[in-house]
Amino acid sequence: MTATVAPEKDATRPGRSGRSEKKPASDRSTAENRLGLKLVAPAVVLMLLVTAWPMIQALYLSLFRYRLTAPDDRAFVGVDNYLTILSDDQFWKSTLTTLLIMVVTVAVELVIGFAFAMVMHRIVFARGLMRTSILIPYGIITVVSAFAWQFAFSLNNGFVNSWFNWLPFIADDTNWFGDYPHAMFAIMVSEIWKTTPFMALLLLAGLAQVSEDMLEAAKVDGATWTQRLTKVILPNMRAAIMVAVLFRALDAYRIFDNIFVMTKGAEGTQSISFLTYRQVIEQMQLGLGSAMSVLLFLSVLLLAWLIVKLFRVDLAQARGEG
Amino acid sequence: MAQQTGKTQVGTWIGFVLIMLWCLFPVAWIISLSFKSEGETGAGSAQFLPKEPTFDNYKAIIDNPDFTRALINSFGISLIATVLSVIFATLAAYAIARLEFTGKRLVLSLALAIAMFPVVALVGPLFDMWTTFGLFNTWPGLIIPYMSFTLPLAIWTLSAFFREIPWEMEQAAQVDGATSWQAFRKVIVPLAAPGVFTAAILTFFFAWNEFVLAISLTSTTSSRTVPAQMSFFVGPDPFNPPYAQLATASVIVTLPVIVIVLLFQRKIVAGLTSGAVKG
């Protein structure tokens, strides 16, 4: 999970403009080029070693019927694995579940995160205390968050039922892990609790960019609070919001830990990541599992592309090198 | 804000209380649960606070060799992955922030793509490769992928920091006859240390938290990390998980996180949002 967005390339950087004017073939720039490549090489090799290479292997394996428990049965089957998956109900159901989790959690986090960011931006006291506290859910292990909420929602040992039984849809004996809607709710609560602080911090950084002068001017011109929010604050932090949404959406789409701990995929709460894990590790279906891996990879690419296109996220800025 | 009205001040106060509750209440819940006795959770204990607080769970967890072993694995793997990842990222980020070379944008795009990579998609092929190379269920078997997945974050954070460094000093050193490499080592490294430290904290958090690879690429306690160990710790009765002991383990693995956050709060926030401020 990364939130770091390098600063946009600043043309005013000292030294840089002079350097690029240099003749391309000078000894100095050849040496610089060589040093640059040398310095990035180890990082690039490491990143590719564990991603590109296995992905190529997955692409290859996905064309075989290959089960680790029966290696001799391995046979080339072409795109059969893909057809099997794409015509499977479970695959589409878990894709829907994953998308549902993604849309709901990101939307809720955006609203709560924005409220948190507003409070943190305005507050004049205890800033350090609040930033320390908000980093605790961020830093906590997802598995721990999942356990904490699983126990909170537990039928016998949780406090949720006894504290909230005055709500119309919660009774003393509500079984939160007994059906799809309840289990999904519990999973989303854990996901939202852990990741909202991250969203809030990114939005806070965006909020700090909205010029106070502009807000002041809007106020003098008689803009209401809602007008100032929708016409001044939100448009001015569009870039920060979009980057936060992109990162969080792709992160939520990969949801695994919470589901593994809280429901083990029961009641139809399997996410696409969980289904893939199950094929590969539990069923040892390396061929079929690899095909799912490829599909998962492609769907993340598609999703990233869609978000960038739909919301016109300025990746040139996010990339830091326009 | 200079002229806050009374109404918004009340709102800010309410917001403050809500944020504190949001962040700390679930932590208080697992701490409270960790002091409940096994008998109490076995019989069903719906109230928040323990009836008779006991340290038994802490004794049981610390005496549990599987858990202490997992703690050692977690610390060892996370620390080694952090140190190595930050070293490689520092080299790469320096080149990206300072040097002109072909393929620079490619490296940054690659890092961005890998940060968004669905880790589960690698589980199958990595499992296959690691068994072939004898890396399955070993420390390096987890350290290597952890490095790969933390490099993007570290490279981004560090290159953002490196852009803020007064580079005239590097040029001054070069004018005085230092080579690019000497300028890097003698001038930039001391200046960049705070940024490197921030990247290290974020990297450590990632490795400490990682779960998918930890359960897929290990099979015994010899290399299983705490999150993986906890998820397999079901106790004798699968229908009645050892709530109190799991809560205790949760509290113990959360302690390092809280210590790091308390000590380095400013650096972490700066690292997480570096660049987003300007983007």
Automatic annotation (TrEMBL), chain B:
ABC transmembrane type-1 domain: which residues?
Answer: 71-264
Q: Which Pfam families match?
A: BPD_transp_1 (PF00528)
The signal peptide stretch is none
CDD domains given for it? TM_PBP2
Compartments, record wording: Cell membrane
Statement: the UniProt record of this protein carries the keyword Manganese: no
- InterPro entries (UniProt xref): BP-dep_ABC_trans_perm, MetI-like, MetI-like_sf
- Note the topology in the membrane: Multi-pass membrane protein
Entry keyword set: Cell membrane, Membrane, Transmembrane, Transmembrane helix, Transport
Does Lipoprotein count among this protein's keywords? no
Which spans are transmembrane here?
Answer: 12-31, 75-94, 106-127, 139-162, 187-208, 243-264
Write out the similarity annotation. Belongs to the binding-protein-dependent transport system permease family.
Identify this protein by name: Carbohydrate ABC transporter permease
Q: Identify the species of origin.
A: Nocardioides baculatus
